[in-house]
């Protein structure tokens, strides 16, 4: 036998061994984890609750590579669509290092999001958990979470904050748009990122300009780079740099808190009205909200808040530029409002923006089609049965919101940008949940809609947007 034949034989041999080990591990995992759980806790007759079908993929890697590569392909839905066809709307997989039950079923997702922490708790990858720390609003559960979420949510919805945001965004956008010229491309996502960060920093900790803001922004950029890094905390690694950046930011916020407390003690300012989220939390009498916990959480709250709004704005402009009729309606509506206000000499209020019916439909449709947050993850704290499926204790659960929003079952022509579909439709259904649901419903949802409405208003009333020349599809 010559060398090439021997190599071929050896490769074949190795291949057979790998497949054998792979099947063994997979089989073991399915039988020892899920099947054992099933027989332990749930009856398995053919009409009883069933463990979702599916594949755990390769050892260690699971199906992560296929999941990630489909996201970068021309057909990002391929991963979910393929499995939905093979196994149904709820199936098992193994992604990002964890055995996971994936759901593209609106009702199952709703039931999981509505359940409390005795059944499901939030799940984030290890790196994200390390960066956030145990007392982050994104991770805590029970009464402390409800208190924190309630206080933050009501402040972010409050009319005085919304009025402040209208004033600030008007200022920030005017300053930025004054510099736009025809011969210079404008990167909308960068502009909106800059504006959204300033709005957030002011709403959370009243940092609004100068060196303090620049320093915070710089450290924050370093901090969020770590969210996508390896979970190795050694000098020189990204996670280490990000943790150092967080430490500096926490120190900066603790100083702000210290100054606020001192000023309140000396009666240097009116403490009756909360100016930012820190003020709201400091007023809470419960001693659980320590200064360090508040400072850490102000940084953590910037994670969901900072990128989502710019993506929403950029996608809205992209969809509008592909849809001349929608762009025309939106522009007309906003121009009308602007002329009316100029005639009466009145200012634009936050509820003027939020009551523009077509603009709101455009934002809703962008949230549906754009899927700024594609899904949310949980971990099962006990065996849970929903709609005939069993989600075993210890397994992760991915509520894949994107597939629901693009499902023919719920939306006619789901890939068509059609703001008019919201004319008759109710937004409060399980088939529309861009901001999640239940106890962890996004507390920034009003803020996100308001910021997007103000941005679009300024854009279409100051500039004439040319739709892309592609014909509109019906
Ligand atoms: C288009 C914009 C936004 C979208 C689509 C969005 C979406 C979401 C979703 C789906 C969740 C639920 C996560 C879960 O259930 O685990 C969430 C949570 C959260 N969002 Fe937003 N969000 C947006 C903007 C904002 C803004 C502007 C803020 C401002 C601070 C914010 C702050 C938060 C916080 C603090 C949580 C965690 C709530 C908790 O776990 O109790 N979000 N968001």
From TrEMBL:
One Gene Ontology term, aspect cellular component: endoplasmic reticulum membrane
InterPro entries the record matches: Cyt_P450 (IPR001128), Cyt_P450_CS (IPR017972), Cyt_P450_E_grp-I (IPR002401), Cyt_P450_sf (IPR036396)
Keyword Methyltransferase: no
Binding site for heme: 442
Tagged with keyword Zinc-finger: no
Highest taxon in the source lineage: Eukaryota
Cofactor requirement: heme
Top enzyme category: oxidoreductase
GO biological process assignments: brassinosteroid biosynthetic process; brassinosteroid homeostasis; leaf development; petal development; stamen development
Keyword terms, alphabetized: Brassinosteroid biosynthesis, Heme, Iron, Lipid biosynthesis, Lipid metabolism, Membrane, Metal-binding, Monooxygenase, Oxidoreductase, Steroid biosynthesis, Transmembrane, Transmembrane helix
Associated pathway: Steroid biosynthesis; Plant hormone biosynthesis; brassinosteroid biosynthesis; Hormone biosynthesis
Membrane topology: Single-pass membrane protein
Family under the similarity heading: Belongs to the cytochrome P450 family.
Name under which the protein is recorded: 22alpha-hydroxysteroid 23-monooxygenase
